[in-house]
Structures are given as C-alpha cells and as structure tokens.
Amino acid sequence: MSRRVRRKVGRKGKEKVVLPTYPEIEEEVSGSVYNGFVDWTGLPDDTVIQLFSCLNDRDRASLASTCKTWRVLGISPCLWTSLDLRAHKCNDAMATSLASRCVNLKKLRFRGAESADAILHLQARDLREISGDYCRKITDATLSVIVARHEALESLQLGPDFCERISSDAIKAIAFCCPKLKKLRLSGIRDVHADAINALTKHCPNLTDIGFIDCLNVDEMALGNVVSVRFLSVAGTSNMKWGVVSHLWHKLPNLTGLDVSRTDISSAAVSRLLSSSQSLKVLCALNCPELEGGTNFAPRKYKSKLLLALFTDILKELALLFVDITKKGKNVFLDWRNSVNKDKNLDDIMTWLEWILSHTLLRIAESNQQGLDAFWLKQGATLLLNLMQSSQEDVQERAATGLATFVVIDDENASIDCGRAEAVMRDGGIRLLLNLARSWREGLQSEAAKAIANLSVNGQVAKAVAEEGGIDILAGLARSMNRLVAEEAAGGLWNLSVGEEHKGAIAEAGGVKALVDLIFKWSSGGDGVLERAAGALANLAADDKCSTEVAVAGGVHALVMLARNCKFEGVQEQAARALANLAAHGDSNSNNAAVGQEAGALEALVQLTQSPHEGVRQEAAGALWNLSFDDRNREAIAAAGGVEALVALAQGCSNASPGLQERAAGALWGLSVSEANSIAIGREGGVVPLIALARSEAADVHETAAGALWNLAFNPGNALRIVEEGGVPALVHLCSSSVSKMARFMAALALAYMFDGRMDEYALVGISSESISKGVSLDGARRMALKHIETFVLTFSDPQTFSAAAASLAPAALAQVTEGARIQEAGHLRCSGAEIGRFVTMLRNPSSVLKSCAAFALLQFTIPGGRHAMHHASLMQNGGAARVLRAAAAAATAPLEAKIFAKIVLRNLEHHQMEPSL
Question: Considering the entire predicted model, what is its pTM?
C-alpha cells in the first residue's frame, strides 16, 4: 500500500516560522555578546527562566542538564505549575523523581492507568485540575486515593474514552474528599446512582459544571436537585427519561447551558425545557435523531434562548449571544476572543460551548454516520477550524482530531472525502493546522500532524501543504523525542511521499534521514511509528535519487532489521515494500546488491513469504523478484530456501489477489534465469502452479507466469513437465488471447523452446513413458503450438508493408516493418548467450514457423534503443550469428516474414557495431 496509504515543484508563498518575541530577552542577550559570541552564563536568572517557560517539559529538562546553574533554575517552582505526562510512560519511579519540582503544581494531564497510579508519588497536594484520558482501566480504588490526597481539587475530567471500571462509589469519594470542586466531567460510566449525585449536591456547593457523558444510566431526578449547576452535559448518555428531565430540570435556578447531543431526546422535551426554564440560555442538541425527525419544530420562537442542532445555523445562533450585532457569522468565536469588553457570564458560556462542541463534533466524526455531508460541508468544517483557535488546549486538540477524523471514509484503505478535505483547505485550515504543528505543546503537534496526514491523501491538499511549508514542519516533527508526535509526522510524510513532486522536497528537508533515524530510535515498542516510517521510505525509495539517499542514510540496514525482527504485519509489509523499491533500481545504482549483501536480508524475505498475511507475502515476493535481477542475489536467494518457499507460495495463491499472484510468478521468473534454479523449480513442483497462474484473468499475472514458463521451458526436462501437466493449452490460450503483448510474446517463445526438437531428444532417453501414462500426445501438442505461434507472428506482419519491404529492401520500408512489429516492453528483456544461441540455431530449424518466430524474437532483442540491445548484439556478433542470419534472409524456402525479420536483425547488428565508434 503506497497510502492510509510525481516530480518536485516549487513551493509558492512559503512563509518563515514566526516565533513570539520577547524584547527584554533580546536586550539581555545583546548585552551578553562579546566578539560575536554569546555568553549564555551571563544572562540574568529571570531571563533564563523566561526562556525555560517557552519550552515543553522534555526540552526544559534537556536545557537544564547543560550546567549546574541552569539545573537549579530549571526546577524553579514557577515553571512547574502545569505538567503534561501524556507523552510519557509515567511510573512510580518517574513520578518520585519529579516530586521535588511539583510543590506548586496546579494542573496535571495524564494518560492511562499506570500514570494514574503514579500521581500520588508527585506529592502535589495543591493540585487544582486533573485531566486524564485512556482511563478505561482506572478503578474506583485508584480514583478514590487520588481525590483523597488532593482535597484542593477544583476540576476533574476523565475521558473521552469510557471509564468502565469507575462506579458511583468513586463519585461519592470525589464528593466527600473535594469540597472545592467546581467542574466534574466523566465519560462512559455504567451507572450514576442518586446517592452519588446527592453526595455531590451536599458536599460540593461550588459545583457548577457537570458532565456525565456517554454513560449508560444517570439518575435524572437526582440531577434535578443540583441547584449549583450552571452547565450540564449528558451527551451520548442512554436510557434517559426525558419526561422526567423536562419536568424537573427546567426548575434548576442557575442552569445556563445544557448539552443533550447524541441522545434520543424528543422535540416535546426540548420545547418544554426551552419554554419553561428561566435561566437556560443555550441548549445543544447535535445529532439527536428524534429531534431532527420532528416536522413542526420551530426553534426561533423561544426568545433569548439558543438551540444548537444539525438543522440550525450554529454560528449564526451563537452570534445572538452578543449585544453587538456585528458579531455574527463565521468569525463569532474569533470576535469573542478578541473582544476588549469582557463579560464573565458570556465568557463562561463560550468557554463551555467550545468544550462541548469540540467533544460532540469529534464523537460524530468518529461514528462516520451517513447523511451528514451537508452538515460537514456547510457548518462542521468551519466549526472545527474555529475551535482549533481556542485558548483551551484540549479543545484545540479535539478540533484537530475531529478534522483528522471527519474526512476519512475508509480508514483501512486510506480513502477520504475529497469534498470535505477541500472545504478545510478553502477555509484556511491548512495554515491553521501548520501553525498548531509549530506549537511547543506536543499534544497539539501530534493531533495537528495527524490531521495534516489524513488531509494529504487528497492531492490538492497535499500540494497546498507543501506550498505552505508543511514538508519542512513534518520533517522537523519526525525528529521529535515524543513517539506520538514522530508517528503522526511520519504518517504525514508517508501520504505526501505518494506524490512524485513531493519526494525531492522531503529529501531536501532532511526527511529521509529523519525517517531512518525513527526506525532505530523506536525499533521496539513502536509499531505505529515503524509502519509509517517504513511506508514513507518505501514511497521515497521508488524514486531513483531518493533511493540512493535512503541507502546512504542507513535505510538498508534499518529496513532489513525490521524485516528480520518485527512481528507486526503492517511493519513487515512496509519494510518488504521498501526493500523491493530499493532493489528496483539495479541499472542505476548499487542498492539491489546492497540489500542482498545485508546480513539476514534474503533469509528474512524468504521467511516473510510464509506469513499468514497476504500483504506481507505479496511485498516479500516482490522484493525477492527485484533482488533476483542481480546474479549473486539470485543464487543466494536459492541457497536461503527461496525456490521451495516461492513454489509453495505459488501453489497456495490460486485464490489470492492478482498482486500476490503476479509477484509470486515474477519471483520464480527471476530465479529461473539460472538454469540450476530452473531445474530446481521444476523438481519442486513449480510447473503446475505457474500453469494455473497462466490461466489468470489478470494481464500482469499473464506476463509473469508466461515469463517464468518461458525460462523453465529452456530446460528440456521442464519443457516435458509443462507438456505433461497440460501447459500447452494454457500457453496457447495466452499466445492467442491475452491482452498483454508481452504475455503473448513470451508464451510463443516458451512454445518455441518446447517444440524446437530438444525436448524430443530428452523424451527418447526414457522419460516419454511418463507422458504416455498421462495420455499426452507430443505430436498433437506440437501441431497446436506451431499453429498458434504462426498466428501470433503473423499479427505483426502486415502483408502490404512486407511486400513493399521485400521488393525494395529500402531502409525506410524496413523501418516501417520494425515499428509495426515492435513490442515496447520486450526491450527490457535480457537474454543469456545460451538463449540467444538457441534462437540463432532455431533459424536453421526445418519448421518455417520456428524460423519466423526466432527471427521475430531476435528482432525484438536487438532493436536500437532497447535496454539490452547492445548486449544482445554483442553476443550475436561474437557467436557468428551474422552468417546464419544472411542464410536465413536468402533462403528460397523460408517464409517471407522470416526473411524480412532476418534482414532487419542484420541491419540492427550493423547499427550496434557502428554505435560504439560514434
């Protein structure tokens, strides 16, 4: 898969990265410059601390390790009020090592149960905000201990994934331990009982923001008693009794915002809430099927109250919150953020709306529902782009993730909705995403890179990303020490590298080296980053120049290491594909030989042909096919068990994809160039599956199967096997019916080998009894073969053109015959001296059909401009073929086609003889 998953073009409008400026720092730095050098040790402490504040935790730690003074400054309490542990595997030991810095820690973000268990060791007793994701395995016990140790907690958020092991008991512990709690948002809890909610009501008088999201059961009556609540979300929660809700919740005296998105709320319940509540300002009901199915619902009749639904103009509705009527339309969020006159109530509403909209839009995008195209194109994309500019980091991240998700139609096949992707591009989304990717916050970097990667599947978007400087940004992110950031950046480079025009730019930006380094950096425990890095390198290796850069950067060793050691099929497939592409440039660089010489490479690829995953088998066979073009590799593959493995692969792929069939037959074709391998393939049972593949309906499979059978038929024992196993009818069918000229050509040559007399001599030595036992008539097979060979050759022999050429033998007339007979792809075939000698000998065969076929084959192999034409001409000249050709051209009994083709071959030899002296 080239991918989730063209020549370089100039990038228009490339901008420099604009970083924040700090005049006071610039003045201090300028004052510390002596003779062109900066004395960093002379900077004042507050200036150094200001520099530290511009870095993420990882870079801050790296900078602090440079000297003793900066180590002390790096643990200044003012730098450690906020900590994001999501990119780290935070265990007890790591948390203990951070404890001395966390005395003043106020805000903590973490990921996973292990990090949750380690929170206690931070000893941050004054924590005010805790936010965790991937909390599926967190238990009541863990959460209860966390809240017991952090009594000053004001905000607790766990989600958006489901907290399946948290129950109402933990919620009661939160209520008892955290009396200052203002915000509680929990996702995916099975049952939220009345006693837990009542405990919150009793012990948390300041609780104004509650979210029980995607829960199974929530006690509606108990929620109706939380009089302190201003903002309430039950989005995605099932089994709600909306009759109870509409009769109780409108009495909540402070309820300002209510989110019932993704529920089965009815239009009647919505109407009652909007008409009866005195305090309610905003009701968000996105993606509520019952409400959207209502025919007579008129949201505008409820004055000063907003309903946000898929059928309303959301941004226009939000503009009604503002006194200034100019604040409406697409810029409502931006206008609010930039407003000079702040209104606390309005700020609270807009801040909450940013959070719940980002959450709901992401959930809708993840569900990939049908019938939402109009919403996404008219409103959804614009909303996500607005939310990406929020001052709330988690909102920005979810909005970027939403953009990455809503464009995807089929994740497995990396297909996206072009209309949605181009809508993001038209609204300035590419520049916004690239700006987020430049952030020092690693969470934003990874989500922005993911969105850029998915959008870049679209060619127009990929071009825009390149023109906006996105390739340099992604190449930089690929060097990140954060695995998630590096993984998404590698995914972006993978998708961009599909375009030929971007490959050179990726190499120029240092992307090749960055991708190779990723493989060494995350060689264990990073299957996602390894697959993306190998996939990008596979695409880049398809380009001749980039292929060389991959090898120079150590890519051969890195990719072979993956093929040998990694057990994840996605990584194996991409590593094998990359090695196949590296080996595809045998005529222009030394990568083919380099891959073969890398320790364990060929053995690993042979082993991968036995993988249970078809994609892995296909790419491994493709790599062995390309590698078999090198003489030493060909023999080494056979020594590594390649013949047996590839025959077994061919035997088992009768129902496989055409891609696997093509490569299995192609690898056998490549190996069978060696006569020893050819004999081994026949002995191992390779003839039967190749005959079966020759009957395939795919033209590409026709070519490789015909090529392999042509090589095998050179050996008379194999030729007899082909006849005995019913190969003549299969080759005759190819010769007469395939849409591929090359398949027809090689099938004709295979038949010519089989019936030029050598197989008959072999059969006379005692093997013919087997053919008799199988009921094969050699005479009947010969007649059938010769008839179809003749028909094939005559399809390239226009009678009028041949008559004119025979009459004049003028160069122009012969050139016209050549052009009519040329099979373009045949110029890529390379024959040995024995093969060329056999066709020359065939010119003396008593059969006029074989004479014509031999002359036609020699014409194809010597046409000027063919890749190996000089090589073939040299073999013929050294073997004295000119004399035989002249005799064939002058023979009175020879067919006209044989004579004309022989004359053209003689002219070709003369041309090649003169060429070196020109």
Answer: 0.86
